[in-house]
């Protein structure tokens, strides 16, 4: 079973971390990925640049509508993702507990669905 | 006559065993709640035909579980959608048929615990956990749960469907949590058990205030948890339920009418159960800072040990409510504190505290708010105000014994 773990935190707060603390956090993330990989749980993942760099695209009447920034103003912003392989939700929760930025913001754990030719799950 | 008696026996077996049968079938059917429920219903239908012909088997529960498993496979095979996953599932299940089904009580109780922890999984919203547990673990009807939580039946039904879908789609496992996760997971279980107890202690609708089986079931669940998991507030919860339940015989008269605490014949209270409850309270209080159930049990213990309402240590009770409010600032606790305050400092003080709660949305349809207010007006000799509040309370409750009690108070007021 695949679970996508979406990492959210308050970017403004994270900006206030010292370079040293920020680097420490990033090193922890590298270790976390190594651990998850060794356990056979890490499928993919990446940290994201801040929402300052985001562009939102909407296709309307076959025309692109392009705006600056993320699609919604929220208190916490998407900061990265981990695609994990886990037996069930309990295992996914235990794995996600190890994601270092979870102690600053939150991790949303979402089961992944399969794209099918028909009878797709909603 | 003979066929009627088999039917009656099946009804009894359904009441006593259907939840255990369901809990085990869900495990055997790999967490498929809906299939397990259908299979269980199929098994009972089959029992109705076969047991009338052949008699009730020695171990009806084992028969129902085994039959349920066959019925589940039948159901999948008859499903013409040609869903490969489903057909593969049927194949796996058929292969497992060769394995002997353990039917010792321990295995069955483990399944009940699995069902409890799955229904109370923290990934589910609290209201979904409560609804699902009452429906699946306790077998309450959707209507009774809806009435208990003051929500429309379709809303409640949808809540249960969504919770089951989430369990299936997000793959919430049918398991008892690992030891290191148990305390945290228990916090999601305790309120559910207490609500089941309350449903049994004062049924949400209908004529009987005491659905003894349901309270007994909650106490049994409480004991099971308390035995299995060393956790102070689980003991506190068990104590609370035992102490409330101990007053049962004094709570209603022969007609089933409610008797308020201050008028109860305390010699009818179950002293052995009070002793057990008080010992559990002491034990839970020793374990560290008290949780919400231990505090409520402490309050119940003060009541249970007092010789009369007048000689109750109301200052102690008010103080305990103050601590409880700090960790659980709920409007219902505030209302109870106001009632205790009225006993400590007089009805005027209680009324002042209650009036502050009148605007709260959660209490707008809570009949006890109006009943408590009415009672204070009555004690202050303001019969017109009391009458108006009793009427409001009466309009808000569906419980027959509560209605009779309020009606009685109302006619006493009017006759004076």
Verbal overview:
- The complex is a heterodimer of chains A (122) and B (416).
- Chain A is α+β, with helices and mostly antiparallel strands.
- Chain A has one domain: Dimeric alpha+beta barrel (Alpha-Beta Plaits), CATH 3.30.70.
- Chain A has helices spanning 11-15, 19-38, 89-96, and strands at residues 2-9, 42-47, 55-60, 63-68, 77-85, 106-111.
- In chain A, strands 2-5-1-6 form a 4-stranded antiparallel β-sheet. In chain A, strands 3-4 form a two-stranded antiparallel sheet.
- Chain A is flat and about 45 Å long.
- Chain A starts with a strand and ends in an 11-residue tail after the last strand.
- Chain B is mainly α and 416 residues long.
- Chain B has a domain at 2-102.
- Chain B has 20 helices and no strands.
- Chain B is elongated.
- Mean pLDDT of chain B is 88; it is low at 204-210.
- CATH architecture assignment name of chain A: 2-Layer Sandwich
Identify low-pLDDT runs of chain B: 204-210
Total separate domains of chain A = 1
Classify the secondary structure makeup of chain A into a structural class: alpha+beta
Low-confidence stretches of chain A: none
Class of chain A, according to the CATH hierarchy? Alpha Beta
Question: Approximately how much beta-strand content do the residues of chain B carry?
Answer: under 5%
Terminal Cα span of chain A: 17 Å
First-last Cα distance of chain B: 55 Å
How many DSSP-defined strands of chain B?
0
Query: How much is the average pLDDT of chain A?
Result: 95
Query: Roughly what percent helix of chain A?
Result: 25-40%
Please state roughly what percent of the residues of chain A sit in beta strands, choosing from under 5%, 5-15%, 15-25%, 25-35%, 35-45% or over 45%: 25-35%
SS field, number of helical segments of chain B: 20
Shape of chain B: elongated
Sheet/helix structural class of chain B: mainly alpha
Which descriptor suits the 3D outline of chain A? flat
């Amino acid at each position: 079973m695949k679970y996508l773990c979406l990492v959210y935190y308050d970017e403004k707060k994270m900006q206030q971390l010292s370079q040293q603390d920020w680097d420490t956090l990033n090193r922890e993330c590298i270790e976390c990925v190594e651990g998850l990989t060794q356990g056979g749980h890490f499928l993919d993942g990446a940290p994201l640049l801040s929402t300052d760099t985001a562009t939102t695209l909407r296709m309307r009447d076959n025309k692109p509508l392009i705006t600056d920034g993320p699609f919604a103003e929220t208190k916490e912003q998407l900061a990265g993702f981990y695609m994990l392989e886990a037996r069930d939700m309990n295992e996914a929760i235990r794995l996600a507990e190890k994601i270092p930025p979870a102690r600053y913001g939150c991790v949303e754990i979402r089961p992944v669905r399969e794209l099918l030719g028909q009878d797709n799950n909603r | 006559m003979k066929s009627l008696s088999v039917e009656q026996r099946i009804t009894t077996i359904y009441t006593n065993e259907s939840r255990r049968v369901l809990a085990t079938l869900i495990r055997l059917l790999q967490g498929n709640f809906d299939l397990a429920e259908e299979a269980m219903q199929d098994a009972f239908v089959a029992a109705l035909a076969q047991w009338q012909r052949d008699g009730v088997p020695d171990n009806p529960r084992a028969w129902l579980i085994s039959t349920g498993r066959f019925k589940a496979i039948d159901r999948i095979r008859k499903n013409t959608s040609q869903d490969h996953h489903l057909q593969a599932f049927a194949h796996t299940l058929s292969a497992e048929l060769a394995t002997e089904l353990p039917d010792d009580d321990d295995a069955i109780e483990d399944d009940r615990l699995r069902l409890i922890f799955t229904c109370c999984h923290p990934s589910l919203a609290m209201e979904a956990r409560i609804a699902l547990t009452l429906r699946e673990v306790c077998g309450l009807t959707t209507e009774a749960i809806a009435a208990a939580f003051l929500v429309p039946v379709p809303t409640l039904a949808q809540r249960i469907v969504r919770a089951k879908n989430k369990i299936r789609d997000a793959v919430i496992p049918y398991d008892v949590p690992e030891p290191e996760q148990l305390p945290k997971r228990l916090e999601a279980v305790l309120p559910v058990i207490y609500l089941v107890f309350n449903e049994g202690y004062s049924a949400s609708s209908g004529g009987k205030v005491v659905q003894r089986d349901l309270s007994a079931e909650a106490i049994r669940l409480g004991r099971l948890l308390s035995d299995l998991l060393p956790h102070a507030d689980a003991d506190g919860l068990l104590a609370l339920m035992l102490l409330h339940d101990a007053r049962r015989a004094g709570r209603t008269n022969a007609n089933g009418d409610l008797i308020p605490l201050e008028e109860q014949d305390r010699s009818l209270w179950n002293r052995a159960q009070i002793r057990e409850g008080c010992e559990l309270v002491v034990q839970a209080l020793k374990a560290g800072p008290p949780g919400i159930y231990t505090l409520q049990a402490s309050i119940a213990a003060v009541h249970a040990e007092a010789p009369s309402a007048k000689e109750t240590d109301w200052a102690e009770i008010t103080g305990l409510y103050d601590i409880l409010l700090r960790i659980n600032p709920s409007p219902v606790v505030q209302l109870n504190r106001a009632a205790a305050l009225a006993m400590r400092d007089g009805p005027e003080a209680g009324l002042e505290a209650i009036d502050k709660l009148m605007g709260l949305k959660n209490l707008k349809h809570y009949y006890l708010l109006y009943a408590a207010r009415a009672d204070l007006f009555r004690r202050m000799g303001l019969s017109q105000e009391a009458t108006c509040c009793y009427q409001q309370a009466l309009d808000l409750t569906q419980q027959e014994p509560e209605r009779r009690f309020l009606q009685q108070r109302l006619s006493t007021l009017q006759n004076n």
